[in-house]
Amino acid sequence: MTDDSIVIDIFYPYPVSRVWDALVNSESLAVWLMPNDFVPTVGHRFTFKPSEQQGWTGLIECEVMVVEDQKCISYTWNNAPSHLETLLTFSLEPADGGTNLRLEHTGFASAGKAGLSIRDMLGQGW
Question: Is the dihedral of CA 20, 24, 27, 31 positive or negative?
Fold first, then answer.
């Protein structure tokens, strides 16, 4: 983690196509992240809707910025209660026996201490 970002590198023992599907399929995203109306099309605006079990009522409003098939997906992440807009990027690379995934969530420093607090909370959840 830096002042402005969360960076996580992880290896999955699955082919790139399977990891990609988990990132761009709305139903798959709902299983591991939150219910949503995501479509992997540049310019598409969508919302993540936290469930009651997550104990949080804020929506996350997003817009798809980049789609490079099986390589990179990037979208804005606007936490409705704070209105801090950040950028979330998932990059995939084939590796021996699976896929290397990099998550980069950037743009927190622009909101000062409040942004850094949000970065710290999200950093624990990713």
Answer: positive
